[in-house]
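chain below, 110 aa
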Amino acid sequence: MVEQVARALAAVGRRERFVTDEDLVFPGDAGGHLDASALRVRYKAALARAGLRPLRFHDLRHTFGTLAVRRAELMAVQSWMAMRTFRRRCASSATVIAAARRGCWWRRSR
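prediction:
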């Protein structure tokens, strides 16, 4: 999945508009934030088409983190997810990876 995300984000980088570091990755038509209600409707429709149970949009972040830590260095995943630390009851990298393999959820530090 990490490779698929990397390819999708690389394609975003090849678009013609909204390509500066300050631009959003997934902008609305005018370059600003997407309309939250429209995004929610599209997201729920995509879940239904895929036959998936209802998930909060934010759960995608946790799913990505759990899957990514299985295939990438912890520091890379931490950077990709804009996390300052992995705040879990884990004392070492080995326990973080083991927790991820069990489906552990990550929390962003405050």
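The chain has two domains: 2-50, 59-101. The CA atoms of residues 88 and 101 lie 14 Å apart.
thats it, cya
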